[in-house]
Amino acid sequence: MPLSFTVGGATLAEEDLATHIVGAVKNIFATMIFISDIEDRYPLDKPVSHFTCSISGMVGLGGDCTGMVGIHIPEELAREATASMLGMEMDEIEGDGDVHDAMGELTNMLAGEVKMIFSARGMSVCLSTPSVISGREYSVEVVSSGAAVVVPFDRGEHRFLATLQLEGS
Predict the structure, then answer these.
(1) In 48-87, which positions are buried (b, 16+ CB within 10 angstroms) versus exposed (e)?
(2) Which residue, 51, 76, 99, 145, is the most exposed by fewest CB within 10 angstroms?
(3) Which is one Pfam family of this protein (predicted)?
């Protein structure tokens, strides 16, 4: 049975939200990061909350639609994306600061695209400042009464996730 979300009086199918997320991620990667060979693998086989050698960016949604947008990406792909975004070689990136900033901005761009989905339906949505976490091993647990849309993407041997968690769904 297809999952749907009711937010601010509007009902949206999970598949429609996933389609918007796929289009937004592919567009952001192609136009801002200059990487166009990513493949979406929706739907996700099994839930993922534990990450190894990864970076997670998250942006909160507030207003008529509350929740969180996230991107969870392996460090190596995050560094490659950062270098491409900044017009640098990977070995020119010093430390994690630029990578964290780039992943925060990537998540912010995706959150802006998600905001447009709800704004087009007359909802007022505001975005938080991006938060970024990284590490050798960590878990991301969203404490929520709602449901999530999780879209996996592959680039070569790297898999990353784009997520949308909505409250009250």
Answers:
(1) eeebeebbbbbbbbeebbbbbbbbbbbbebbbbbbbbbee
(2) 145
(3) CheX
Q: Where are the beta strands (DSSP E) in the chain?
A: 4-7, 10-13, 39-40, 50-63, 67-74, 125-127, 131-139, 147-155, 158-166
pLDDT of residue 114 exceeding 70: yes
Q: What average pLDDT is seen over the chain? A: 87
Residue 22's CB is within 10 A of a number of other CB atoms, namely: 18
Query: How far from 43 is each of 11, 112, 160, CA to CA, in Å?
Result: 20, 22, 13
What CATH number has the domain spanning 4-166? Answer: 3.40.1550.10
Cross-strand bridge partners of residue 151: 162
